[in-house]
Design brief:
By secondary structure, the chain is mainly alpha-helical. The chain has four helices and no strands. It is elongated, with a radius of gyration of 19 Å.
């Protein structure tokens, strides 16, 4: 009985690991529609206007955009603000796919 329980636990761990890998693969596949028309995703550069700014518009409006309460201190419609704040932005941006896009943008020279 103990061996059967351990075998069941092992199978469950393998299954959960496979599901996690499949989910991560599907996230990377669905994220490709945000890329530029280039067919090589490794060579793409994250575009602020079309990929990064819409994330912040969806999550941080109205406060961090024109007319918002904190726009004067932290305007999220400007790429230099996002670059300056860096990983601090992830206290509010929890979605892994959105974080990946932002990290790609921050990693650009």
């Amino acid at each position: 009985m103990r061996i059967a329980t351990q075998l069941l636990a092992l199978l469950l761990v393998v299954y959960v690991g496979a599901c996690h890998r499949a989910k991560m693969n599907s996230l990377s596949m669905t994220g490709q529609h945000f890329s530029s028309s280039s067919s090589a995703p490794a060579a793409k550069k994250a575009d602020f206007e079309s990929e990064i700014k819409p994330i912040f518009q969806a999550r941080c409006q109205p406060c961090h955009f024109q007319g918002g309460q904190v726009y004067d201190k932290m305007p999220f419609d400007k790429p230099e603000t996002i670059t300056r704040l860096g990983a601090k932005l992830f206290t509010r941006i929890k979605d892994e796919k959105e974080q990946r896009f932002i990290r790609e943008f921050l990693a650009q020279p």
